[in-house]
Amino acid sequence: MPADETPSDIPEGISPDARVTWPPPALIDSWLGDAEVDFEFRPGEDVAVHDDPEARAAARRFRDVLGCFGSGITVITTMSGDEPVGMTCQSFSSVSLDPPLITFIPAKSSRAWPLIQRSGKFCVNVLAADQEHVSATMATRGIDKFAEVSWQPAEVTGSPVIDGTLAHLDCTIHAAYEAGDHYIVVGRVQHLATQAEGADVTEPLLFFKGRYRTTDG
Fold first, then answer.
1. Is a pLDDT exceeding 60 seen at residue 118?
2. Do residues 10 and 120 touch, judged by C-beta distance below 8 A?
3. Are 191 and 156 in contact (CB under 8 A)?
4. What is the SS3 assignment for 130?
5. Angle between helices 25-32 and 112-119 (to 10 degrees)
6. How would you write 9-71 as a 3-class SS string?
7. Which of 49, 98, 104, 164 has the fewest CB atoms within 10 Å of its CB?
């Protein structure tokens, strides 16, 4: 894209780094295919590798070793037009305090990411210990993911804040980088909050060695 060319569909406030990687509308539409709600990201889910036995063994070893690093579970949400979008995401982390930046890493095969990228905004929902069903729902293809998941619009971007989560971070896209079979997405935090005082569940939903866990016993 020429440096002096600014597509009208790129949201305002996006950093120059993100603008460089922003795809044209035709490419976004080709990613989406013929399914409007068909996203999938399961914690620890295999990424396709070559059929070569050595490649498969190396990939399995890589996943097994990385599975020893326990992490929290989040759901990344946005609005695509009037429709809520969500994807389960294990790969979330803080990046910077000043400015306040966070990151998540969607697979290139993710159907949610093109919609999130096109919107230019998203919300990170940190799941509580009793929200395994939310994680499973948001990682399932071909269903109305929000049919039985209640939510409220985030304060700044309007992205869905799922009820009962431990915390949420309302963000705009700061930058996006290609990294192997994934993208590294950096978000700038516009607003953040923890759950209301007196909530029934205060422990996190975790993922370790292919299983959901929590810190409570």
1. yes
2. yes
3. yes
4. coil
5. 150
6. CCCCCCCHHHHHHCCCHHHHHHHHCCCCCCCCCCCCCCCCCCCCHHHHHHHHHHHHHHCCCCE
7. 98
Quickly count: other Cβ atoms within 10 Å of residue 141's Cβ.
11
Q: Are 70 and 208 in contact (CB under 8 A)?
A: yes
Q: If you average pLDDT over residues 193-197, what whole number do you get?
A: 85
Cβ atoms of 92 and 74 closer than 8 Å: yes
Mean pLDDT of the chain: 81
Structure tokens belonging to residue 5: 């060319």
Residue with structure tokens 């969607």? Answer: 106
Q: Are 113 and 87 in contact (CB under 8 A)?
A: yes
Give every CB contact of residue 78 below 8 A, 6+ residues apart in sequence.
84, 85, 115, 116, 119, 121, 122, 123, 157, 159, 160
What is the pLDDT confidence band of residue 199, given thresholds at 50, 70 and 90? confident
Tokens of 38: 């068909």
